[in-house]
Design brief:
The protein is of the alpha/beta class and about 350 residues long. It is about 50% helix and about 15% strand. The strands form 3 sheets. A 5-stranded mixed beta sheet has the order 7-6-8-5-9, with helices on both faces. A 3-stranded antiparallel beta sheet has the order 3-10-4, with helices on both faces. A two-stranded parallel ribbon has the order 1-2. The longest helix has about 40 residues. The N and C termini lie far apart (about 90 Å). About 5% of the residues have low confidence.
Length: about 350
């Protein structure tokens, strides 16, 4: 009798251990299946960027902080030249592409619309040698740009003109990339140049006493580093576009409100030193609107149209803002996230 009881207890013990193992294995299997389903359920989208540069930091902030994943999106961000990105956008192989080039073709009637921007104005910083106390001291001096006729060149001339310097008062030289111009600045071959926010942070560590004479955003208020989508995708899969906008907006807001977090992403993505990464992120903050993150002002977008109309062969007065941009989804997402839109185009007064 006792032997039977002991045998019964042993069998129960064995079955208990087996049951525990079976339950653990079942739980593991369910977890794996759920994880696999969540990965499978993610929608892969292609967000083409013209260059993997600091100006596109919010993209990587969104990836590193799981903002795309929260929207069940898997974002692939290949570097694609604008000339190739737009045909890819229209064919459906690319979902989102650079807004600057996209809006230019939209001015000619191509069915694409800008939907969100990382910055509502230019991010360049006008830097000068230590002995240059103000922009007026650049009279007769050498000022470097990357390429004659490029956006940075035009902005440089606009900054100087706003301070009363005419083109006859200074010499413009094209020296290519930021690193080459920083070196020329150190050697006193040039006295001032317009630098990207990360390059400005680097320059401050290499030349003692270097001065910030102006922020391009004070002059150039055209929206910067944005994305366009086809009208077809916007109408046929509006929820997908909205999920992208929501994730992107969260990254923009985080970059402005928590620069330390964005700086850590910059360190990892671009191999930057911590102090340079933080300084670079802080350099972009003036270009991220606190009252309308992701959007732009009517003045800024009108300035873009005026600057580009002749280049694309249209009359500026014939181009409407709605021909090149649609911020409807941005406004919806801002409202859902509790962001009060003020001062931007399309904000409710």
């Amino acid at each position: 009798m006792r032997s039977a009881v002991r045998s019964g207890r042993l069998d129960l013990y064995r079955w208990g251990r087996f049951g525990q193992r079976f339950f653990s294995l079942s739980l593991l299997l369910v977890t794996v299946l759920l994880f696999s389903f969540s990965v499978w359920a993610q929608t892969r989208i292609v967000q083409a960027i013209p260059t993997k540069s600091f100006g596109y930091l919010p993209l990587f902030v969104a990836q590193e902080n799981g903002f795309y994943r929260d929207e069940s999106l898997e974002v692939i961000a290949p570097v694609v030249r604008s000339a190739a990105a737009l045909p890819g956008l229209l064919s459906g192989e690319i979902h989102f592409a650079s807004a600057e080039s996209g809006m230019r073709v939209a001015m000619r009637g191509t069915p694409v619309k800008a939907i969100i921007f990382y910055y509502d104005r230019a991010t360049w910083i006008f830097m000068a040698r230590p002995e240059i106390r103000s922009i007026h001291d650049l009279n007769g001096k050498n000022i470097a740009v990357n390429t004659i006729g490029a956006g940075a060149d035009l902005t440089t001339r606009e900054i100087l003109r706003s301070y009363g310097l005419q083109e006859k008062n200074y010499n413009v030289v094209a020296l290519g990339q930021d690193s080459q111009r920083i070196l020329a600045l150190m050697k006193n071959q040039i006295q001032a140049t317009l630098l990207n926010p990360d390059s400005a942070a680097v320059a401050e560590t290499q030349l003692d006493g270097i001065k910030r004479l102006a922020h391009s955003g004070d002059i150039q208020k055209t929206p910067f580093s944005g994305f366009v989508v086809t009208e077809k995708l916007l109408s046929e899969n509006r929820p997908l576009v909205k999920r992208f906008v929501r994730a992107t907006l969260k990254a923009i807001v985080l970059s402005r409100e928590q620069p330390q977090v964005a700086a850590r992403v910059a360190e990892k993505t671009f191999g930057m030193k911590p102090e340079i990464a933080l300084s670079a992120v802080r350099n972009t903050v003036p270009s991220i609107s606190a009252k309308d993150p992701g959007g732009f002002t009517e003045t800024g977008i009108s300035q873009f149209i005026l600057q580009n109309a002749k280049q694309v062969g249209v009359k500026a007065e014939e181009v409407r803002i709605t021909d090149i941009a649609d911020l409807t989804l941005l406004r919806e997402v801002q409202k859902e996230l509790g962001i009060s839109c003020e001062g931007g185009y399309g904000c409710r007064k």
